[in-house]
């Protein structure tokens, strides 16, 4: 499962629904750009230290996807299938 920034943020915030979905997946992976967006989003948060510590300790449990032409094409097809 590919995680977008909103899903990653919800998971870090303890959203039970996202956690339930992720537990049923064999693999969960945010693209590297999502990690950048997440870090940017928490840069001035009062929870920055907690979020960064969580990310640093838990990132090894995720496969981080590079951004490539193939991944962008795959993502665009997913958007069409969902809507």
In a few lines, what is going on in this structure?
The protein is 63% helix and 0% strand. It is an all-alpha fold and 83 residues long.
Structural features, described:
With 83 residues, this protein is mostly helical. It has one domain. It has five helices and no strands. It has helices at 5-12, 16-23, 32-42, 48-58, 69-82. The protein starts with a helix and ends with a helix. 8% of the residues are buried. The model has no long low-confidence stretch (mean pLDDT 84).
Task: Please tag this protein with its features.
mainly alpha; single chain; 83 residues
What's the helix and strand layout?
Elements (H helix, E strand, L loop, with lengths): L4 H8 L3 H8 L8 H11 L5 H11 L10 H14 L1
Please give the share of residues in helix: 55-70%
**Spans where pLDDT lies below 50 across 5 or more residues:** none
Inertia-based shape:
globular
Mean pLDDT: 84
SSE pattern, N- to C-terminal: HHHHH
- Beginning-to-end CA distance, first to last residue: 18 Å
Radius of gyration: 13 Å
> Beta fraction of the residues?
under 5%
**Beta strand count:** 0
SS summary, helix count:
5
User: What does the largest sheet look like?
Assistant: none
- How many domains, as an integer? 1
What is the structural class? mainly alpha
């Amino acid at each position: 499962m590919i995680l977008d920034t909103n899903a990653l943020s919800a998971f870090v915030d303890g959203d039970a629904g996202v956690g339930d979905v992720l537990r049923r997946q064999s693999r969960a992976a945010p693209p590297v750009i999502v990690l950048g967006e997440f870090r940017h989003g928490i840069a001035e948060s009062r929870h920055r230290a907690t979020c960064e510590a969580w990310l640093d300790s838990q990132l090894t449990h995720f496969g981080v996807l590079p951004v490539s032409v193939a991944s962008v094409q795959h993502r665009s097809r997913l958007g069409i299938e969902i809507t």
